[in-house]
Design goal:
Length: 181
């Protein structure tokens, strides 16, 4: 499926939106004194997305009941922009999940901590499950099998990460203790 915007937003328009929100990328003017270029478009969209997510997070109440109301309100706005195309919605969700997975796995440590590894795998399980469903709806049996295999591997990674985290906090025996049993 190809997704194209009916009225694509230019790099200049995105940059103007960031400027209006006082969120221009700091390196932008130094890097490109001639102004934003189309090659900068995805980077600028990422900056605008981050600013939007930060604004939503700041505006969301931290009470269980209030937070859900706020999330639903933002979801209504999201749905109005998206329209009534379920395939497009899944594509947007998959894209968001992939960004989330990358963000979850980012760490300063040389090795990803087990809780983050499990969270990464959980997000990737969702990506693969959505992909499997899309392939199945298209009648693509091989694509469905491939996506299901990815989901199954990710589920195993979730369990390994959770077990490793239990070992780290002393709730489960580690590999050295399991040999003694």
């Amino acid at each position: 499926m190809s997704i194209g915007s009916e009225h694509p937003v230019s790099a200049e328009q995105i940059h103007a939106a960031l400027a209006a929100l006082a969120a221009e990328p700091a390196a932008g003017a130094k890097k490109r004194p001639e102004g934003p270029q189309e090659a900068d478009r995805l980077h600028l969209l990422g900056s605008l997305l981050a600013k939007t997510e930060l604004e939503i997070t700041a505006a969301t109440r931290l009470t269980e009941e209030g937070e859900m109301e706020d999330v639903l309100e933002t979801l209504l706005g999201w749905g109005e922009q998206l329209g009534a195309d379920p395939a497009l919605a899944v594509n947007v969700l998959t894209n968001r999940l992939q960004r989330t997975a990358l963000q979850v796995s980012e760490t300063e440590a040389e090795e990803v901590p087990p809780g983050r590894e499990a969270a990464f795998a959980a997000v990737m399980t969702a990506v693969y499950a959505l992909s499997a469903q899309l392939h199945a709806e298209r009648g693509d049996t091989e694509g469905t099998r491939h996506a299901l295999s990815g989901a199954e591997e990710a589920l195993i990674d979730i369990l390994h990460g959770m077990h490793d985290l239990r070992v780290a906090i002393g709730d489960a025996p580690g590999p050295e203790n399991e040999a003694d049993s």
